Amino acid sequence: MKPKWLVSWARCESTPCRAVARRDRSTTSSHRFYQVRRTPCVAALVCAGLTSGCFLPRGGSSTPISSATSDYSPVVTFAAKVSVTDSVRIAVDRVRIVAPGEVFEGTRASTGTIEMQAMLVTANPNANGSVTSDRNGTSKPWRERSASNSVAVADSLFMGLPQTTGPMRFALSIPSDFDRANSWLVFRLSGPAKAMAARLADGSAPPEIKRPAIRVFACAVQNLDGKTDKARAKVMAEAYSSGC
């Protein structure tokens, strides 16, 4: 009986595939790994040789997410690898988060623990009646359909000092009327805000000002079918919080 990898090799008949496989045999182990990742045919051979249960996730793609151009604080930037099967699963290797502002020596943290939550959303036909809003009360043009558990992304933030964290994973249930072409991802960041330490001219502490809790967002411009929503991208480019 032929090994599985030989059977798979016999099915791989295209010239480009054979050429890549020949090059692969003459390269170092690190280059072989690179060829496997870049070449679907070779990847299929390796999968067959290692385990009969190996497969490429349906709908897997990398979606860039960034709120860096917004007026929000804090802002995040990361790439989300999204797989859609019986649920939406999101893998994030690394998140960059920062509370924009100037760095002053001796300042205290401007936030408490910041958490991030993934949401599956669709367009909200009546944004004025939306129950989703930011901490300023601005209604959002989308409607939350499902949400993941929250994951801590920072114990605290200091103004102007970026932090990097990860990896993290999110899972979202799929609504019964799910439509990839009209659904996208929104990430909600929330946590307590702290007033910056200050002293009056006479050295006394000013009255404590209670700041509203942090509730900001970062949105994908791609829908879950992998296509960019040009209208949403345009709105976010001009006024980020209006589209996100």
CATH architecture of the largest domain: Sandwich
Question: What's the overall average pLDDT, rounded?
Answer: 75
Estimated radius of gyration:
23 Å
Would you give the CATH topology of the largest domain? Answer: Immunoglobulin-like
**Strand residues, percent:** 25-35%
* CATH class annotation of the largest domain: Mainly Beta
Shape: elongated
Q: Note the gap between the termini.
A: 57 Å
**In DSSP terms, counting alpha (H) and pi (I) runs of 4 or more, how many helices?**
6
Number of strands: 10
Return the domain count. Answer: 2
Helix content: 10-25%
Biggest β-sheet, characterized?
Answer: 5 strands, antiparallel
Series of secondary-structure elements, N-terminal to C-terminal: HHHHEEEEEEEEEEHH
| Unreliable spans | 1-59
Class per helix and strand makeup: alpha+beta
